[in-house]
């Protein structure tokens, strides 16, 4: 690792915000909201655990801007009906130990399961494919007034996040949710000012950023999670992503997290990733290397990192400014502290499997195993790295019954 940047090097943004190190806990679905979609004490404890573990920035998982548009049953929602006191408690716990806690703000669009929405909305009335049409209802095309109202909801939620004590916000513009749907020519077939060409398709995310910036001011961090590509025929490409990155950088966005994939092609979980990329660990590092030549905006790459040497190499390359960590933080919440003490530390968790791929898929084992580790941490227990696939399935069924096998997210 070069002398001028290490895991423990502070990172200063252009607005003067300083992050104490280069570790970024990326968003994961916690499913720890109460029945009113407010954060629970267990959720606050989970983020206190990550703060104690040495992370520089923790990103919340999937906080929805509208309680009538959920991606999952136990999503946290931050809107006019929220209990802001509960959010203040969450922010206070997650910002201990000089950690930052940023809120990921999201709208699912048509990626809301049929048991949560009879008629989801989207840029265009195009259903999900790849077999997902069985679990997700066909969407209705958004009208102009509805689009403008959603933009204002993003801004309103961002202002509430700042007032509650969170130290930054992130637009979820990846993984096939609503912002990602607007960016994709596969899902956005509009011919008005919100679609028809790449400039119009990125208008939605730019207007969201502008509205949020107006709501929180110039010195409050606003970031985005953006796909490098959708990895789908006719979908959002690297060429279009580069244009979006440059446009957001020109607008002054503070940080860009690079990811990739959608429900239909879940590259963010390692699906379809080349073996050479897997060995390098960072799934989307090549894309970051491209855009680093074009912009100075701080970059995070999330997906695949498991070993200190690979993380150090990525930082040393200059292609990124922070190491994005998601699933590793579910089993080793003090991973940043371990890496700061020993840069050669590595973590490898065997992928849970029953031995039957169809059952793994139907039970969403790749998601529920990690959700249950988060639940253990939230209860003040240690993660169980040896928890079996069968234990995971039985526990999921015991907690949720038939809903255990309902498609939720990739």
Q: Which percent bin holds the helix content?
A: 25-40%
For the largest beta-sheet, the strand count, sense and barrel status come to:
8 strands, parallel, barrel
Rg, alpha carbons: 20 Å
Assembly state: single chain
User: What overall geometry do the principal axes of the alpha carbons give?
Assistant: globular
Low-confidence stretches: 265-280
SSE ordering: EEEHEEHEEEHEHHHEHEHHEHEHHHHH
Helix-and-strand structural type: alpha/beta
Our measurement of the CA-to-CA distance between the termini, rounded to an integer number of angstroms, reads 34 Å
Q: How many DSSP helices?
A: 15
Q: Mean pLDDT score, rounded?
A: 90
Strand content: 5-15%
The strands making up the biggest β-sheet line up spatially as 3-4-6-9-10-11-12-13
General description of the model:
With 410 residues, the protein is an alpha/beta fold. The protein has 15 helices and 13 strands. It is globular, with a radius of gyration of 20 Å. The protein starts with 10 loop residues before the first strand and ends in a 10-residue tail after the last helix. About 4% of the residues have low confidence.
Summarize the structure.
The protein is an alpha/beta fold and 410 residues long. The protein is 37% helix and 12% strand.
Sum up the structure in keywords:
410 residues, alpha/beta, 8-stranded parallel β-barrel, two-stranded antiparallel sheet, 15 helices
